[in-house]
């Protein structure tokens, strides 16, 4: 169940295990939507593999360069592939248009292999990239960034423009949930470049606002990932342990980072 309405019957105290936070807001200069999955204890091997597969799908979509006549629905398999490889799927689209001063879900963009559409991406479109993994009665994972469609300045041999995506959302991932041995070298490089952008654009803002707890939490969550196999990887130690921030702190930094990026 990817979405639900909380009630006294379903509310539980957060003490350990996985927590999925789907947050966002509407501001004068843009609309944000971001999802991150945190773990308040020590994740299992199953949870780490599931999280990593979701992250890989997210990265593969973000890295894509494509001709402008490609239909959004045709990109869905790229993000779902790693989850399909584990004989699972998620019951929602991979992405939707992001509106401003309107519904967060804005037509016509819908990245879903079940969608029938004639629309294509245009430079300046904003949409969500949100693959997931849900195990009934156990746990759920969703990672979501907002992407902007950008022009690469290059032309396809058929005369169409080559377009690409730029991540607008800058919020760290849960490092201890990532099995880096499952990531390819280009995917690790993407993750390191993404983390470097967080440090560059958000680090100074956190320090300016004197939010040092959030700053040090962010620095821990954005440590460099070795892009080639290390001795530790050969020995089976592929995840990184970091200090924890409270749920309230994680929510605070999530809202701050997504708000800051649009300024």
UniProtKB/TrEMBL annotation:
Classification lineage: Eukaryota, Metazoa, Ecdysozoa, Arthropoda, Hexapoda
Spans through the membrane: none
Domain Peptidase M24 per the UniProt entry, residue ranges: 1-149
The protein, known as: AGAP012802-PA
Peptidase M24 C-terminal domain span: 161-224
């Amino acid at each position: 169940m990817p979405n639900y309405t909380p009630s006294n019957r379903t509310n539980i105290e957060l003490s350990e295990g996985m927590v999925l936070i789907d947050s966002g807001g509407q501001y004068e200069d843009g609309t944000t939507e971001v999802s991150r999955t945190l773990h308040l204890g020590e994740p299992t091997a199953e949870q780490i593999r599931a999280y990593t597969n979701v992250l890989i799908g997210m990265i593969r979509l973000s890295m894509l360069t494509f001709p402008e006549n490609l239909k959004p629905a045709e990109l869905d398999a790229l993000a779902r592939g790693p989850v399909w490889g584990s004989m699972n799927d998620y019951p929602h689209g991979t992405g939707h248009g992001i509106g401003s001063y309107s519904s967060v879900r804005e037509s016509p963009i819908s990245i879903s292999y079940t969608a029938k559409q004639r629309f294509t991406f245009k430079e300046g479109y904003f949409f969500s990239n949100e693959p997931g993994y849900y195990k009934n009665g156990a746990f759920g994972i969703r990672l979501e960034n907002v992407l902007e469609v950008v022009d690469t300045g290059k032309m396809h041999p058929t005369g169409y423009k080559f377009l690409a995506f730029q991540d607008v959302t800058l919020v760290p991932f849960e490092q201890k949930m990532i099995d880096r041995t499952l990531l390819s070298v280009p995917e690790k490089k993407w993750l390191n470049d993404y983390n470097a952008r967080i440090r560059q654009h958000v680090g100074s803002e956190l320090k300016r606002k004197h939010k040092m707890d959030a700053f040090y939490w962010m620095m821990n969550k954005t440590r460099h990932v070795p892009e080639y196999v290390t001795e530790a990887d050969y020995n089976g130690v592929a995840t990184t342990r970091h200090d924890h921030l409270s749920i309230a702190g994680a929510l605070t930094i999530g809202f701050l980072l997504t708000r800051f990026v649009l300024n």
